Amino acid sequence: MMKKGCPYGTHRVIEPAGALPQPARKIDNNMEIFDNEILIDVQTLNIDSASFTQIKEQAGGEIEKIKEIMLGIVADRGKHQNPVTGSGGMLIGTVEKIGAALEGKTDLKVGDKLATLVSLSLTPLRIDEILEVRKNIDQVDIKGKAILFESGIYAVLPSDLPENLALSVLDVAGAPAQTAKLVKPGDTVLVIGGAGKSGMLCCYEAKRRAGVTGKVICLGSSEKNLNRARKANIADVYISADATKPVEVMEKIAEITNGEMTDITINCVNVPDTEMTSILATKKDGLIYFFSMATSFTKAALGAEGVGSDVTMIVGNGYTKGHAQITLQIMRESKELREIYEELYA
Amino acid sequence: MMKKGCPYGTHRVIEPAGALPQPARKIDNNMEIFDNEILIDVQTLNIDSASFTQIKEQAGGEIEKIKEIMLGIVADRGKHQNPVTGSGGMLIGTVEKIGAALEGKTDLKVGDKLATLVSLSLTPLRIDEILEVRKNIDQVDIKGKAILFESGIYAVLPSDLPENLALSVLDVAGAPAQTAKLVKPGDTVLVIGGAGKSGMLCCYEAKRRAGVTGKVICLGSSEKNLNRARKANIADVYISADATKPVEVMEKIAEITNGEMTDITINCVNVPDTEMTSILATKKDGLIYFFSMATSFTKAALGAEGVGSDVTMIVGNGYTKGHAQITLQIMRESKELREIYEELYA
Ligand SMILES: NC(=O)c1ccc[n+]([C@@H]2O[C@H](COP(=O)([O-])OP(=O)(O)OC[C@H]3O[C@@H](n4cnc5c(N)ncnc54)[C@H](OP(=O)(O)O)[C@@H]3O)[C@@H](O)[C@H]2O)c1
Ligand SMILES: NC(=O)c1ccc[n+]([C@@H]2O[C@H](COP(=O)([O-])OP(=O)(O)OC[C@H]3O[C@@H](n4cnc5c(N)ncnc54)[C@H](OP(=O)(O)O)[C@@H]3O)[C@@H](O)[C@H]2O)c1
Q1: Residues in domain Alcohol dehydrogenase-like C-terminal (chains A, B) (predicted)?
Q2: Are B297 and A295 an interchain contact pair (Cβ–Cβ within 8 Å)?
């Protein structure tokens, strides 16, 4: 008889009591599954870039030291949550066992190869052996097991795309999928950081949804990356500007939109202090989607009030229904984007 | 001839160049107005509570020292932006002069008494004399002038409500006004911190909009404040719980909603670590409005992803169209709430 579990995995939290698995300091990584859990035979860990950089530094770059630190983290916490950065990563593996209570509820089958789309910082993990550390792309092959909770999200890896390509775009899948849901025909859309990894996917989706009556503006900083985006033909207008300069960007957007500004602005940069730029570029009754993790809640809230803008600002939830399918589909549809992402990440 | 100004007041920024008035270190507080500015004869400053607490401490509570510090801030920055907390406050005064370019564009008249609803941290201010410091309610009467930019928001003070009552509710006007826009008939709505200053206004608006087919749940921590809310009859259910305990609150909400959870959750607390509670209390395709300034962007974004929730999370913009009117109207309509707010704040 399997034990009954909570959908969020609170039944595995050891301390502090009452916490969820992510904020918890320690969780139970015993691999006997509860009735609503999925056991995964792990192949590769994709350590979060901030976390892996810290581990490499602490190890002075030595592979054996890196292994030791990683094993130490999992032994201490029952999950691969870097105690310094707090972050995790994701993993690829094969479904080994499915809890009885999930029968008929999940479309997974034993033997399916999947990527987890919830953070390693909340995933029960046991490492039996570290097989290979690929230092430059933050990937670590292991022998080990992991648990996916009932509420945990995942994507079955497609057979028609290279694994590493799928992994790299799945990392930012929330952004293009939200773009697909937010943009309507005829919209003027600005993507800040539009020539980056999540940004190009957002431009592509925005252009498809806004259609011929809409306008997609791709804002980037380096000419090199803007040119790459131009070749893939993912936007109607490309501008090079510093997204931390609100007035400069506002004036450029005013020129492009005849003073009307944008209906939707999607923020995909990886630097702080771009809230005000997003607000001033957008119509006062427009919408801003902040995918950037460098967004400050108070800067956005007080910034909009300060200029009397009634803009709706959305926190970039990493998950939205169907986000993996929507994003992988872009790699199938756009030959140009696929070439760019294969060259960069696969 | 008046000089032409930028709607956001960038023409008054002295340093750093290219900044907006709020992040700027120093702005020009010369009281000769530009063509799109409004000159205000200031009566009272309402210093932001965090800022005033710091000033009082630095002054060791001495009135003369408080005055000295305040005069020093304005002399240095051209605005009353506390260099330690970064925050400002609001002001009441009388319209003295209106820029030529605003004629026909503004409904203000010379002689109108108004409250500014943009922060003092971006408002050009000149203090000629500090008349009285009311230490316990953060109010300071002065002789002086201020400038309202074209994009600056304000409310004409109503003649039928006590000034201090109006001021106290205008401070949180964004929350009930957004509630009014978000809640639809039949919705189940949770207001976290529902017995507080902004929370009670949100409950009231939510109950009005959700109607007899909806359900409003007021969550507070102290029984005393919950009882006060109960007397005003602003919700359908009142629960006492610690909003930093996600699982505990989730279970209570599940019980009240027969496991369906809420359509909309409005977060009005003043403490950190309540993002996960808001997420777990809300339907996976529901909506969360974070009014609390203690909200962490990353905790909200990663938290929702971690439990596979597709919830839409909105950053609590302090401004929304008509927010002052919507909020003052509640004080006219609800005798019970008006009594509570008069006793607490006026
Ligand atoms: N919400 C979530 O769940 C979630 C999940 C994953 C990632 N993220 C966040 O998404 C963001 C983007 O990730 P990514 O993988 O797409 O990163 P990325 O590929 O590095 O893209 C960032 C882009 O921002 C541009 N940029 C940087 N500074 C700029 C400036 N001052 N002005 C204009 N553009 C500037 C860069 O332009 P150039 O290329 O021209 O230099 C780059 O293309 C990150 O903040 C990340 O934390 C969020
Ligand atoms: N977005 C904006 O533009 C804007 C503008 C103004 C204010 N705000 C923010 O709005 C928030 C609320 O402001 P306010 O004036 O309404 O504050 P308030 O009157 O102090 O109300 C806060 C409420 O939170 C409740 N609370 C505190 N800790 C709690 C816990 N652990 N569990 C459950 N309830 C808890 C308190 O309950 P008890 O009364 O029972 O102790 C209190 O009623 C603040 O964070 C403020 O920064 C935002």
Answers
A1: 199-293
A2: yes
